[in-house]
Amino acid sequence: MAEIKKIVLTGGPCAGKTTALVRIIEHFDSLGFKVFTVPEVPTLYSLGGWNYLTPNRKLYYEGERAILETQMALEDFFGRLAAVCNKPVLIVCDRGTLDISAYMAPEEWESINADAGVNPATLRERYDAVLHLVSAADGAEQYYTTATNSTRYEKADEEGLRIARELDKKVIKAWTGHPHLRVINNHDDFERKMQRVLREISNVLGLPQPVTEERKYIVELTGELPETIDSDILQIYLVSEPGTEVRLRRRSWSSGKVVNVHNTKKRTAPGEQIETERQVENALYQSLLQQADPYRQSISKRRQSFIWKGQYFELDTYHGPLDGLVILETKGVADQEDVNFPPFIRVIKEITGNKEYYNYNLALRK
Q1: Residue of 98, 301, 310, 319 with fewest CB within 10 Å of its CB?
Q2: Sheet holding 129-133: strands in order across?
Q3: pLDDT for 27-45, tens place per residue?
Q4: Angle separating helix axes 57-83 and 106-116, nearest 10 degrees
Q5: Using CB atoms within 10 A of its CB, is residue 163 exposed (0-12), middle (13-18) or buried (19+)?
Q6: What value, to the nearest 5°, has the Cα angle with vertex 308 and ends 302 and 309?
Q7: Is 30 in a helix, a strand, or coil?
Q8: What is the DSSP letter of 15?
């Protein structure tokens, strides 16, 4: 049976998904993968005559339920095709099941889940990774256009840009909790955005990648944060062989959602590594704790994630022995690119590449 990986390519309006799909097919086909693409289901229904702006709430509800059930069916059918291939397969979904929740009230989404016999947790588990491309409406407004999608109602004016930014945040929130959710920033050079997409998929496929350093800063919070996604993180490092770093992470949200992830980084050559991660159930998590590295303490921190001017940030406030340490990390900002520091953040010191501040080293017992 072929090795199969399934990812979701999602994002706000005018994020570059169409271009990214073309690049993904060309790139991974040339590396020997069979690439299947699951089409964007809401567009199929819109082109077929259904309109999600209809005032008929029953028609709206049945349309959204049909979209969810069609999405799952299409993914399953492509999975059957993948199973009989004689080479590794990458299934790319142009949006996924949880995208639907961003366009409706929570109570309607819960009702549709019940009718379809699913829940957000089981829907999230259908995918190996989720790549969210930030809308051009946030930080790259000069490139925002509605010309590439005739069914889009977020027009290229101030109100349309505001709606697009809000949808962007709602989609990220819908997928929050997936162990391999990656947010892909906007860049002045669109090519950088595409290269980040290819790199993140390569990580999912277990292909060796150059070791890259995200830009990190010790900071002080001087004002109120914008709307953020907050979570509490507990990291424990496990005993591992030389050249390998193994981390066990438990991440929890105020909603009660908890996700455990086992992560391994292994150096394969100078400046190159393979990183793998997998979600683990609570029983296995408890069992793995017995392998905790006795020379390293646990890392406890509160993470607040947000987008500012098209760039994605994670603000980590540490607890316990590291109490008082606050680190801001950029995600996917290129070396030659300026960081759009928010006005409510004061940078104390840049620590990019400073091994003293790697979590693996912060965990060392003094």
Answers
A1: 319
A2: 34-38, 89-94, 4-11, 129-133, 181-184
A3: 999 899 999 999 999 999 9
A4: 50
A5: middle
A6: 165
A7: helix
A8: S
